[in-house]
Automatic annotation (TrEMBL):
<dbReference type="GO" id="GO:0042910">
    <property type="term" value="F:xenobiotic transmembrane transporter activity"/>
</dbReference>
<dbReference type="Pfam" id="PF01554">
    <property type="entry name" value="MatE"/>
</dbReference>
<keyword id="KW-1133">Transmembrane helix</keyword>
<feature type="transmembrane region" description="Helical">
    <location>
        <begin position="360"/>
        <end position="380"/>
    </location>
</feature>
<feature type="transmembrane region" description="Helical">
    <location>
        <begin position="21"/>
        <end position="44"/>
    </location>
</feature>
<keyword id="KW-0812">Transmembrane</keyword>
<dbReference type="InterPro" id="IPR048279">
    <property type="entry name" value="MdtK-like"/>
</dbReference>
<feature type="transmembrane region" description="Helical">
    <location>
        <begin position="287"/>
        <end position="307"/>
    </location>
</feature>
<dbReference type="InterPro" id="IPR047135">
    <property type="entry name" value="YsiQ"/>
</dbReference>
<feature type="transmembrane region" description="Helical">
    <location>
        <begin position="56"/>
        <end position="80"/>
    </location>
</feature>
<dbReference type="GO" id="GO:0005886">
    <property type="term" value="C:plasma membrane"/>
</dbReference>
<feature type="transmembrane region" description="Helical">
    <location>
        <begin position="197"/>
        <end position="217"/>
    </location>
</feature>
<feature type="transmembrane region" description="Helical">
    <location>
        <begin position="328"/>
        <end position="354"/>
    </location>
</feature>
<feature type="transmembrane region" description="Helical">
    <location>
        <begin position="133"/>
        <end position="154"/>
    </location>
</feature>
<dbReference type="GO" id="GO:0015297">
    <property type="term" value="F:antiporter activity"/>
</dbReference>
<feature type="transmembrane region" description="Helical">
    <location>
        <begin position="92"/>
        <end position="113"/>
    </location>
</feature>
<feature type="transmembrane region" description="Helical">
    <location>
        <begin position="166"/>
        <end position="185"/>
    </location>
</feature>
Length: 463
């Protein structure tokens, strides 16, 4: 295996330098979700289930934010390889305007029809009443988050990933502190419960946006040309829509599919226990995947830059294969660590901490075993789709590989086990992991085909 991942001296040091800030950024972001879940869990399983249901449309918003980030990253990483700063400014401008417009529309829908949306997500109207105030406020926060995420993505694609780490680290500290004050009513603040968690998130997102605005005015790495930012031009809009819109639709479709898994659990006979266990395990599972997401993002930057520099197809393939193999090795190590921690830490300590007992603890255990064992598969498919294929502009195939296994295999199987056959948790948990199993051979085939390598900055791409 060492021979298969061998590269020139200093390569993996550079990879770690690029990926670790992204890993820490994702760790901070996902830790915030875990902290939110922990604080809300102290209010009771019903409140936690309500927030879990409310976060279904929120996860769709997050997926769209990630889609805009990824689409922008395709352009910026290749323009960065060419050192074309004017086009980078135009790319950021297009992404900011398009992303903010989409986020504003979705936030308005969540604000005006929160109860109606919540009623679609579970068979328990009490959860809708509890979660509606949270949903009204949380949607607004993602308008600001969209703008700050766009700028953080541009910095990451220009090989400055530490900016996002520091930005979201500060945001998480603000959010956590305000959560404590507003959820539980500490230091003279009102006790707002679930609504307090949403207000805390909104305040933190506004602070993110302010930090980005100040930094953009002073930054020397990406000197934003404001005339190009404000008037990016129709050519850049067409280019962004060509390469970014499939990614945004891909992430929206994937986010909707992931949300549908939560909805399926919300319609089971033991929906409160299912949603509570899924809330905890969803956040724990993402904590173990942060390294894989970081490697995927670093892969996108390195491969995209290599294409932008005009490196040969052989060199690009060699680079991509080494990165994917390293990701697989890393995923296997993470899976082993997670499975060891399950009986030694999570079951005896973490589950009781989140008030998971009896049936909800048994559900969480099944979800943990199946999701942890699937980490190597997730690692490879994440780096293949979001790293290699997207950075080469292969956005349509990326979308097909991401959505097909989820909607054709995973969702029908999970619904069959949970709602029709009512098999119990273990078959349901296994069905939820079939997505990554189905993706693996498809990703292997497409990467090896070499048909994904495109220079998306070339004028010929727009003909």
């Amino acid at each position: 295996m060492a021979i298969l991942i061998r590269r020139e001296q200093g390569f993996y040091r550079r990879l770690m330098k690029l990926s670790m800030p992204i890993v820490l950024q994702n760790l901070i972001t996902f830790s915030l979700g875990l902290i939110d879940t922990f604080m809300v869990s102290q209010l009771g399983n019903t409140e936690m289930a309500a927030v879990t249901a409310a976060n279904v449309p929120v996860f769709l918003l997050i997926s769209i934010v990630f889609g805009v980030q990824s689409g922008l990253g395709i352009l910026v990483s290749q323009y960065w390889g060419k050192q074309d700063m004017k086009s980078i400014s135009r790319s950021i401008g297009v992404a900011a305007f398009v992303g903010a417009a989409v986020a504003t529309v979705l936030a308005a829908v969540l604000f005006f029809w929160p109860v109606q949306i919540m009623d679609l997500l579970s068979n328990n109207h009490q959860l809708s009443i509890l979660g509606a105030p949270y949903l009204k406020i949380i949607g607004i926060s993602y308008i600001f988050n969209m703008l700050s995420s766009v700028y953080a993505s541009a910095q990451r694609s220009a090989e400055n990933p530490s900016f996002g780490m520091k930005l979201f680290g500060a945001s998480t500290l603000i959010n956590t502190g305000l959560n404590y004050l507003l959820i539980f009513g500490k230091l003279g603040f009102p006790m707002l419960g679930i609504q307090g968690a949403a207000i805390a998130t909104l305040c933190a997102r506004i602070c993110e946006f302010i930090i980005c605005s100040v930094y953009a005015l002073r930054d020397k790495r990406i000197r934003v040309q404001w005339a190009a930012f404000v008037r990016p031009g129709w050519d850049m809009l067409r280019r962004f829509l060509k390469y970014a819109s499939p990614v945004v639709l891909n992430e929206a479709g994937w986010g909707l599919g992931t949300s549908m898994l939560t909805v399926i659990l919300g319609y089971t006979e033991n929906s409160v226990e299912m949603l509570a266990a899924n809330a905890v395990m969803g956040n724990l599972g993402r904590l173990f995947l942060v390294f894989c997401f970081g490697l995927g993002a670093a892969t996108a930057v390195l491969v995209g830059k290599a294409i932008g520099e005009g490196q040969s197809e052989e060199d690009i393939m060699s680079l991509s294969k080494a990165l994917l193999r390293f990701t697989c090795v890393s995923g296997t190590v993470l899976a082993a660590i997670a499975l060891v921690l399950l009986p030694t830490l999570f079951m005896p300590v973490v589950f009781p901490l989140f008030k998971l007992f009896g049936e909800s603890a048994a559900i969480a255990t099944a979800l943990a075993v199946t999701s942890f064992a699937s980490i190597p598969l997730h690692a490879y498919t994440i780096s293949s789709i979001t790293g290699v294929l997207r950075s080469g502009g292969d956005v349509l195939w990326s979308a097909a590989l991401d959505l097909g296994p989820q909607w054709i295999v995973c969702l029908p199987l999970t619904a069959l086990c949970a709602l029709v056959l009512k098999t119990g948790i273990w078959p349901i948990a296994l069905a939820m992991q079939t997505e990554s199993v189905a993706k693996l051979p498809l990703c292997l085939y497409r990467v090896r085909s070499r048909k994904w390598i495109h220079d998306v900055t070339a004028n010929k791409e727009m003909l």
